Prior knowledge:
Elements: H1 5-35, H2 40-47, H3 62-94, H4 96-99, H5 103-138, H6 143-159, H7 168-187
Helix pairs in contact: 3-5, 5-6, 6-7
Amino acid sequence: MPEDPTHxxxxxxxIFRQMQREADRIEKEREERSRQGLPLDQxxxxxxxxxxxIQTAYTFRWGDLFKSAAFGxxxxxxxxxxxxxxxxxxxxxxxxxxxxASNMAKGKYMxxxxxxxxxxxxxxxxxxxxxxxxxxxxxxxxxxxxxxxxGAISLGALMSKxxxxxxxxxxxxxIIMDSVHLLMRDFGGE
Length: 190
């Protein structure tokens, strides 16, 4: 009997995360073994001069940070462009000035709104994923706490600018979608 492909995908994702944690743990053990016997100043030079009181199962990698930022930026930009286009269409239909304008002017207005919204949501969701990755590497509070803390920080940054406050429901929806994905991965199909 063939297995459900979504279940296989979830299993592969879980196995990949476990393998990544194991590889990070082994790498940290190797670093610790290589530092044994070295003076403290040389240990700090090997470590980059930083000392941390908290040890996590993850090590920082620029490639992983870039992947997180790129993923958030792509998903945010796609979502933002869709919502920006819908909002621009709605506003163009309601505006008395644009009702009398040429189709070219309406198109320009809609493209500006789409671009503005795509940029805003791309930067927002990219920042959310960067904060989430930073939390995982520094304190590793767990998947659900990562989303909660990164969401609070990201939404707080969005809320600080009055011009961006109308985007709060859409931004919250992006974070909720990330949470639902996590819930479905952990509890769905088992």
